[in-house]
Amino acid sequence: MALISMDHVNKIYPNSTRPALADIDLHIDRGDFVFLVGASGSGKTSLLRLLLREEEATGGDIRVGGYDLRRMAGKQVPQYRRSIGFVFQDYKLLPNKTVWENVAFALEVIGTSRSAVRSLVPKVLKTVGLEGKEKKKPNELSGGEQQRVTIARAYVNHPQILLADEPTGNLDPTTSLGIMEVLDAINRTGTTVVMATHNEEIVNSMRKRVVELHAGHIVRDQAAGVYDSALYFPDGQVAANAHEAISGEATSAGTSVGRHSVSAEQLGKLERVDRARIVVDQVDEALRSGAPDEGIARLAQSVHAGKTGRYGEAFAPLEETLTWGTGLSLEDMEAKEADDDGQDAAPDEAVAAAGAEAAVTTGDSEGDTSDETQIPDSDASVTGTPSRDEAEPDAQSAEAARTASIPRPPADPTQAMPPAPPKPPTRPGPPRPPASQPSTSAQE
Ligand SMILES: Nc1ncnc2c1ncn2[C@@H]1O[C@H](COP(=O)(O)OP(=O)(O)OP(=O)(O)O)[C@@H](O)[C@H]1O
């Protein structure tokens, strides 16, 4: 049975004649990742608010997990909502609490012991890349960092379902990539994710299920879908893209989280806090293990089209894309290579002039430039996209240290993404899927 079932659901707001949602039939299985797309006012937020039981349907049935939302007593609602993680734009962080306190609060309201809070909060903050920011208040954080706190807060309890309304709204593409990495990793632990978005690049890269709303109706429900609807936005290119996406190799949404997978039965027997701890570890591992995830790799490639990774020549193994977005533009790389060549040339001249001592210098210089942790900040800060190095020196150095500690696999040409083509001036089609990689359905 589907985890989320909506049958013939209508929603008409008071003082409104036109339904915001009309005859919605939607069934979402455990572990699914669903994008809700559609023009402004099409009903995406309304649908999410019905699922959160923030609004009540005017007609139809909504069942989420074991709950029948239409028959739920008011006093049950808070408990129900605690089983759902949500990242909504108007659910702001508590402004007078620090990052740590905001996340801890989500645990405290469900009665988690102080010692469990003390052990869980740093883990979840590390997972979302916020180490070193624990004592900051929300107004001292960038938009992307605030969004990461919101996500940390939303999943620290291991919700079965995570609802996200435009979680990348107002964020630059590279920061959005970081947010998507976390949401995707959460999904790979078995959490069902339903995300409303206007972000075409994310939807086209991730190739998850796409449900499109139009004037309150579901007009498309597409597995491994794309952003555009050929039906409602007829355009030859869009139709071709959709056709390519549908006929292309659809990939499974989930991959197992590997070594630390825990069966649903095992999870069920554990205390809530222990479950949360395991899931936080799973998300952490999913983010750091480099387990192949084509959607995120494609998104990283798309976001960095025309750029090379911070640590490598082109986006290839997944762990090298986990940079919270910083990339070097091709121009920067060329300039850097020219610089390196210049450094190479100078000692050559010196060799001619002064003998073998300079040859040693040449070798050292090359060694330095190939060391991923040695790229000076100034290189990354001239990327042409908003640099996180300027805004988040702490996070960047933590990231560099973390990445440096990840053992890097030997170069494997079968896993490498091809170098990103330059972005076409017109609307890009969905990138072709890379060679299929092993994946299994997420289990909970
Ligand atoms: N609280 C409300 N009271 C009355 N009408 C509302 C309310 N909330 C939403 N609506 C209306 O319901 C329709 C759907 O709105 P909704 O916010 O769900 O759309 P959306 O697809 O999420 O839009 P956007 O992409 O701009 O966020 C719109 O016509 C909107 O004006």
CATH level 4 superfamily of the domain at 29-59 and 77-233 and 270-305: P-loop containing nucleotide triphosphate hydrolases
C-alpha Rg (nearest Å):
24 Å
List how many beta strands DSSP finds: 12
Largest sheet: 6 strands, mixed
Q: Name the strands of the widest sheet in spatial order.
A: 6-7-8-3-9-10
Number of helices: 16
Bound molecule kinds, no repeats: adenosine-5'-triphosphate
> Which percent range describes the beta-strand content?
5-15%
Structural notes for this entry:
This protein has helices at 44-51, 77-82, 99-108, 114-127, 143-155, 173-188, 200-206, 236-247, 264-269, 272-288, 294-303, 330-354, 357-370, 377-380, 388-391, 393-405, and strands spanning 4-11, 21-28, 33-37, 59-64, 67-68, 84-87, 161-165, 192-196, 209-214, 217-222, 307-309, 327-329. It has 444 residues and is of the alpha/beta class. The protein has a domain at 29-59 and 77-233 and 270-305: Rossmann fold. The strands form 3 sheets. Strands 6-7-8-3-9-10 form a 6-stranded mixed beta sheet, with helices on both faces. A 4-stranded antiparallel beta sheet has the order 2-1-4-5, covered by helices on one side. Helix 6 (173-188) runs antiparallel to helix 11 (294-303) and helix 12 runs antiparallel to helix 13 (357-370). The longest helix has 25 residues, at 330-354. The chain starts with a strand and ends in a 39-residue tail after the last helix. Mean pLDDT is 68; it is low at 248-261, 306-333 and 344-444. The chain binds adenosine-5'-triphosphate (ATP). Residues 13, 16, 20, 38, 40-46 line the site of adenosine-5'-triphosphate. Adenosine-5'-triphosphate binds at residues 13, 16, 20, 38, 40-46.
